[in-house]
Amino acid sequence: MPPPPLTNPSPTKPQALPPINHLLALASSNPFAFLRLAFPALTNQPEPDPQLLLLTCGVLGKLSLKHPCRLLLDRLPPPLRAQPGAQAIEAALRSLPDDRLSTTSLIAHARENLMTLISRRRSETAGAVRLTNDETLLSRFELWQRSISTVSHHAGPGGALLTLTREGHLHTLIESLPPHAFAPSQTNKPHESIYLAGCNNAEAMLAAHALSAPRALGMRTRLILLETNLDTFFTTLGQRDLHAVLADPLVDILVGDSALAELQSLLHARLHLDLSGIVVGPEPLNRQVDAILQSTLSDQHEQTQQLAGELTLRHDARNDAWYQSRWTTATARASTDPLRILLTTTRYSTFVKHSVSDMANALTSLGHNTRVLIEPDDASRMTTLTLVQTALRFDPDLILCINHLRSAVCGPLLRNVPFACFIQDRMPALFTTHAGLSQDRRDFILGHLHPELFSTFRYPRTNTLMAPVPVCEEKFSAAPSLPTDRATLDRLTCEIAYVSHQSATPESLRDELRAHKPKFIDALYERLQREIAEGLFTLTVHSITDLTQDLLRATVPAAQLPSSEQLAEIVSQTALPMAERFLRQQMLSWASELCRERSWRLHLFGRGWENHPNLAQHAKGPLHHADELPLSYRLARVHLHAGMGGIHHQRPMECALAGGVCAVRIKQHDLDLVDWCTRNEIARDLNTCNHPINQPIHLTDHPLALQLKALHQRLNIHNPADTDDTLHIPQAFRDAPFAEGRCVVPSARGSWLLGDPARHTFWSRETFRNLVIPLVENDQHRASLSAWQRAVTQDIGTHRAIMRQLLQLIRTNITRISESATSVVGAM
Question: What span, in angstroms and rounded, lies between the C-alpha atoms of 775 and 660?
Fold first, then answer.
């Protein structure tokens, strides 16, 4: 049986050629565009125009395509071939290397690439490979390799060009897409997907695959390769080693007569994901692919609208009484229909992803059903349809997300379903008045409740739960076995340890930022340096915001002063990081000094410490393995921590759970928190026993009053509202939302996480030494403080403890909303 004829993968209809002067200009300025016009005329005419033939020879010669140029020269009439122009081309060709691809190499590459593809299809775990069955595929491949022609190849900045020669004549010209064909849109936003319609050139496949490589946070652009002609595909496989493209599980490959139908099926299977992207490739296949894509996007939109309508109807029918009944039943002991809790997260933040997973496990351990909504792979983006389909099937009673409010996750959907946002990071989108005013009666925030959220951005005080970033009790409580190799044991064992990648100095941050607002940056640097040098750092986040605003007014023109939202971002990105660096460097200078005096070991774990100007000798590199961090907590006599956040940081809590002890550099703000939590707890107890409002309490009225007063005396703190015998309780603590339990703050015991703030924290060189020396040298003292920190962490800092508090807060508020609505109806 004779082999099937090779077909032109990108057939081009002959068209009228432009005038010769236009062709000459085009040949000089854009040889690819010229060949696109000239090639059909030369291959479709038995007697091609001699001048066009000569001009095409010149263009092919400039592109170093020696073999096709030679074939065209041979077709020139003898008189024309004797002319100087043709002779010059002949001479130039003699100096060019052979551009023909080796047939042996072509077949070998094609076979290796094909086997890669078949192997991937047999063990498919992600992406899609749609080919004909192996037996038919290999049979077609054998026919192809017996019929392949000479292939010449050119690759340059304008793209790539292939010519296939059969029986001594040019048979096919294949032009790959130039790099700009894949360029991002005018907004410079990368394409969500690249649909390469026509795999007729390896250069185009490689260029598209390069653009699908991981970018920021690991996101990838999805690549869909489609080719309907198997012979063309085999020829492409023969051009280059394409293993990286073909073996990539996030590249979809659709080849053969059914490729277009397979594309339609594949897109409908992913209808819940973002399918948008750019379609590139030769006509007419690109138009066919684009038509399928646009039709599928239309189907996606229609289904989204339909299902969103169904979801809205379902939830609009549920009133306050329904939610109270549902939550009362679902949270009852031994409920047969527990809560259904939907947690949304992203695979593009490792810490957030793991935190959500730990929260889901904690909620499951409390007896509830959970579902985590996350992208299935690095090339997928979720859409509104993802949420709508999940919500219809799962019917959540609560939606929980980290760092994102309801409006960002749900938009206008699921308005009545309770929604909780765990504020873990200072995300700019949270620090806006619009965000604060968007909070509704079934919206809850927990985590780091920054004061400016309420004072500046108008968040309600109700439905709030102050909580630390939770720690995973299972990960850190399980005692890891000691390392068997001496080098690892010596690396992790020391008197004082510190774990952080934040090794840069305040000076480096100042120098990095000076280019934009040098006067402001210098003033901020000098002011923070003075404040921290004085010992107990008195600036809070709120006062740093005021300080930043004052310094900006003094150093920046009035027209350039920031808005409230912009000021919050400057504080978050500039002032607070600089303050933290000062605190960190000061603490470590005290530690280094003490270790030198007493011949102790100071080990700094993390990136960059080996480049520190003063502390490089203590650098021990990052803690690479999952067991190294808990082992370090356990083996170091003392771990250190300092930062602008509160005392409820995951570092000391992880350390406590692992059996270590953490010494923390506190600030005035931390002592204020102890005071605030203690007075709040006293107020709750006074409300219970009907103590007269607006009257101070005597120290003997409550044990916590005595404890707080004693702490003030040891730290020489004086509150003007207190007397020697009485403690003032702010009216706010006696009123809603605190009194009604709709604003939850840590207990007094929880605020003593680190131990007695006067004895078990530090804020100066002297207090640092007084705390650390006994912890290093006295086993009993270390064990006692470690046990206390561990017990308090288990009470307030684990995922299970915080999730239990959150569910109780939501149930309390849902009950209050329902009872208030019933009272209003009854009064009418």
Answer: 11
User: Model confidence over 752-793: pLDDT tens digits?
Assistant: 999 999 999 999 999 999 999 999 999 999 999 999 999 999
Please tell me the predicted confidence (pLDDT) of residue 2: 33
Burial class of residue 157 in the structure, from the number of CB atoms within 10 Å of its CB (0-12 exposed, 13-18 middle, 19+ buried): exposed
Backbone angles phi, psi at 159, to 5 degrees: 135, -160
**Cα–Cα dist 148/66, whole Å:** 19
* Cα 63 versus chain centre, distance: 44
Residue recorded with tokens 């010769």? 20
pLDDT tens for 116-146 read: 988 888 776 556 777 777 778 888 888 887 7
DSSP code string of 559-577: GG---HHHHHHHIIIIIHH
- Contact between 644 and 745 under an 8 Å Cβ cutoff? The reply is no
Within 8 A by CB and 6+ apart from 130, the residues are: 253, 254, 255, 256, 258, 259, 262, 266
CB 473 within 8 A of CB 800: yes
481: left (phi over 0), alpha (psi -120 to 50) or beta: beta
Written as six digits, the tokens of 579 are 């303050």
Domain residue limits, the chain: 102-300, 318-466, 474-665, 667-743
Distances (CA, A) of 310 to 85, 300, 393: 74, 15, 12
Closest to 174 measured CA to CA, from 4, 3, 32, 23: 32
Q: How far apart are CA 768 and CA 794, in angstroms?
A: 26
> N- to C-terminal Cα distance for the chain?
93
Candidate CATH numbers 3.40.50, 1.25.40, 2.60.420, 1.10.10; the one for domain 318-466:
3.40.50
Residue 686 · residue 660 · CB < 8 Å: no
Helix (H, G, I), strand (E, B) or coil at 731: helix
Query: What single-letter amino acid sits at 153?
Result: H
User: Comparing C-alpha atoms, which of 553, 392, 600, 356 is closest to residue 472?
Assistant: 356
Reported as a single tens digit per residue, the pLDDT across 314-346 is 999 999 999 999 999 999 988 899 999 999 999
Task: Quickly state the pLDDT bin for 651 (edges 50, 70, 90).
Answer: very high
Tokens of 404: 């994102």
3 state SS of 488: helix
Is it the case that residue 585 has pLDDT exceeding 70? yes
Q: According to DSSP H, which parts of 123-176 are helical?
A: 134-147
Kindly state the tokens that stand for 211: 């653009």
What number of CA atoms fall less than 13 Å from residue 249's CA on the CB side?
9
- Token couple for 311: 């979801």
Least confident of 76-85, 311-320, 816-825: 816-825
Q: What is the pLDDT at residue 12?
A: 44
Check if the beta carbon of residue 498 is closer than 8 Å to that of residue 824.
Answer: no
What share of the chain has pLDDT > 70, as a percent?
88
Distances (CA, A) of 828 to 253, 322, 527, 729, 818: 67, 21, 60, 38, 16
Q: How confident is the model at residue 689 (pLDDT cuts 50, 70, 90)?
A: low
Helices marked H in 317-349: 320-330
Orientation angle between helical segments 20-29 and 31-43, nearest 10 degrees: 130
* For the ranges 49-63, 290-304, 482-496, the one whose mean pLDDT is highest: 290-304
